[in-house]
Amino acid sequence: MTILKxxxxxxxxxxxxxxxxxxxxxxxxxxxxxxxxxxxxxxGSGKTTLLNVLATIDAPTSGTVLVDGLDxxxxxxxxxxxxxxxxxxxxxxxxxxxxxLSIEENIALPLVLDRRPLTAIxxxxxxxxxxxxxxxxxxxxxYEVSGGQQQRAAIARAIVxxxxxxxxxEPTGNLDSRSARAVMDAFTLINARAGATILMVTxxxxxxxxxxxxxxxxxxxxxxEIHRGDGRQAFFQQILDVLSQMGxxxxxxxxxxx
Amino acid sequence: xxxxxxxxxxxxxxxxxYVAFVGSTAFTVMIYFLYTALxxxxxxxxxxxxxxxxxxxxxxxxxxxxxxxxxxxLYSSSSxxxxxMKELGLLSLLGVSKRQLIQIILGENLIIAAVSLAAGLGVGxxxxxxxxxxxxxxxxxxxxxxxxxxxxxxLRTILVFGGMFAAVSVASLRAVLRRSVVExxxxxxxxxxxxxxxxxRLALGLLLLIGGYLWAGSPNPTMVVTGVVPVTLIVxxxxxxxxxxxxxxxxxxxxxxxxxxxxxxxxxxxxxxxYKIQDNYRVLAATAILVAVILTAIGTAFTLYALSTSDAVNxxxxxxxxxxxxGTDERPSIAAVHAVLAKHGLDRMPxxxxxxxxxxxxxxxxxxxxxxxxxYREIRADGREALNSGDDHEAILVFPRALLHxxxxxxxxxxxxxxxxxxxxxxxxxxxxxxxxxxxGRHLLYNLVVSDVVYDGLANRVAPGQRIHISMWTGDWRxxxxxxxxxxxxxxxxxxxxxxxxxxxxxxxxxxxxxxLLVFIGVFVSLVFIAACFSLLYSRLxxxxxxxxxxxxxxxxxxxxxxxxxxxxxxxxxxIFFLPFVVGLVHSTxxxxxxxxxxxxxxxxxxxxxxxxxxxxxxxxxxxxxQLYWRALQDxxxxxxxxxxx
Lengths: 258, 646
Ligand SMILES: Nc1ncnc2c1ncn2[C@@H]1O[C@H](COP(=O)(O)OP(=O)(O)OP(=O)(O)O)[C@@H](O)[C@H]1O
Ligand SMILES: [Mg+2]
Fold this sequence. Notes:
The structure holds two protein chains of two kinds. Chain A is α/β, with parallel strands linked by helices. Helix content of chain A is 38%, strand content 24%. Chain A is built from nine helices and ten strands. In chain A, the strands form two sheets. Chain A has a six-stranded mixed beta sheet, sandwiched between helices. A four-stranded antiparallel beta sheet of chain A has the order 2-1-4-5, covered by helices on one side. In chain A, helix 3 (103-113) crosses helix 4, helix 3 (103-113) runs parallel beside helix 5 and helix 5 runs parallel beside helix 6. The radius of gyration of chain B is 33 Å and the shape is elongated. Chain B has helices spanning 3-13, 15-39, 51-93, 98-139, 151-178, 181-186, 199-216, 221-256, 258-261, 264-315, 331-343, 373-380, 452-461, 480-492, 504-543, 545-557, 562-599, 604-642, and strands at 320-325, 351-361, 366-372, 394-398, 414-420, 423-432, 447-450, 467-473, 499-503. The longest helix of chain B has 52 residues, at 264-315. At the A-B interface, helix 1, helix 2 and helix 3 of A face helix 10, helix 16 and helix 17 of B. Magnesium ion is lined by residues 47-48 of chain A.
């Protein structure tokens, strides 16, 4: 079943003719329910723009986005905010936890905003925290735990309300390789356990190798897509191959990363 | 980039921060200027009746304002500097030299000083005429004060405030130069520990507060009077402790109450509020104390005004009273008074004659005027309770009632001796505290009532020098005719020590003038405090705005709607604004209760009247500031939103 369908997405920045940037140029793709999808591409290729448009944070210049069959361009103002917080989950590069709330409260936030009953909130938060191995940290505050742990808490928050789609932009961008691995394991786990559909933008071929499908984007257009077969190692190699095919700034980046 | 450009860029970046600072400083300059102009006015250096007191009052008020303005400037500028530590740190990291840094800070302070002074003096000049008109009317000066603001006034204002600005600039320079670049950049970015309250400090605060309140609430007037300074100190300290501990305790309790807390509004507001209060409790306490002082000052001024004017009839119960001491012929003076009254159409007022005898109550060591019981009965017949004592061996001592009087409870009765000339009598005396029988005068303050038989006997035997002849015209004391008659009468007998005329109207006029002046000074000084109070709250709000923006932005990213965000921001702001107000109101209610003890009346409503007035001001200020704050917050959010979420 298709959960996300984008067709002919175009985004043009700068209205005057002289300073026009085509960040997206007729981008189309489909994502099946329950998939863990990666999006890769060189810097400036339009990944962030794509994610913003898909996540209803930014409106496309033309083209449509269907989330679970619903055309998101129909939603306005308050409706849009409500749609975003009930149906979508977000994971950010800088975790974006609220400093004044404990880890537990941070995770509970979407449920509280949704006015769920207290007992249901508590039960659900404990369940999700247990999946992600952060049940010991629930009473701590964000500044009292490591970056990787904060990111896992952010993932817990992104899926606690069972959204149809989880968006993540460079979730491992601020992490060392060990924490990055723990975070990617967490994504894999919630994808399997909760059946969450995940859309992740990343520069990092290692992180991307945890996905089931990776879309490559260049100059705002879909370049290619690859699917994971058996092993993660093999998929990692496959990703590196596509990246070197695409060329550009990628080679050096990969070289010092792996 | 020149240092000038850097400084002006700072200003444009966040002008809202400067507005409160410059505005309230300008306001303070203006008030100081007005007061100085008045106290240095050439016409007032001579001798109008109440003018001397007024000038004294103004001078004292100007000193209070100057001291207060200095503290205020010092505080505001230090929080100002802290705000920009990071910006200044970045600049020096980018290679701006120390000298340029100094130039920036001094330049900025110079501009702020110049603008505040110019605005304050300009507006002050515009309002000066109005101010003089008001003061002339209040003091009932025969001629309105002409417009005058000599070089001295300008010079003094500029010197006083210029000096303050210089001192404050030096202080802020020191604060910046003492820190290293790294410290500057890191300023304010330390992660903050979660707010916790300490039970023993909470207990200490409560103990202090209850102690202070009990002292102030004591029914004993002497206790109240001796308590004014210590109670103020104790309660201020308690406020400082409690506003942090009690608020955080309260919020923690709400936090623990799951069913309430786990709802959108409380969830987003409570923990954030605890941090805010932890960071700002000093300012909140200062504001609460300021509010308490303002409310109490205005409430007290109103009370004294209202009571003393309504009290005119209690202290001077006889509409027109002529007192003649010694045994001279009393008829010519009575005729003269009658003529004046007749001239104003008041000749139908009933007249009553009384001869009181000068005596001394030896036990009590009091000079008294001895009057017959029949007179006492007559006066007390009009509703007030009369002590029943027509007995020859009993007497009634009528006490004068004062407005503010730490009076002890009188005994039921006591044995005493009264001495009148050569005569001496033993009597049992009962006290009467229900009010005066006649207007006050030499020997007339305390009246001793004896039976008519005893009185007649004494009256026949005493020397003429012991007799006080009192003529009383009773009836309505209000009205224009009465006013004119009253001033004519006091002119008629001016300078004659043995013949005294006193009127209720005259007393009323004097009270209105004096108390009106008191209210005026009180309200004006309060205005300065109010301005400071608002400015403190305002600048606090905009000091934290970067942090608030970050918080709001994060909330928006997890899907909190704009409406919820607005509700959250405004309800939080409402607590920060109205918490000090409520605390100040409670304090001032206790203070007004104490004033009630001193005046032996309920005066709480005067304090609450003042509070209501202030609440309107506060509410208007809250709405205005709320708008500004929300717009500033949104500006920042839109900036963030334009750059996308990811
Ligand atoms: N708000 C904007 N206004 C104008 N141009 C923009 C804006 N945001 C992005 N662009 C341009 O659109 C193009 C795509 O940007 P985008 O941020 O989507 O790239 P990206 O793939 O996320 O890059 P990176 O990997 O560096 O994050 C770039 O050329 C960028 O300069
Ligand atoms: Mg990007």
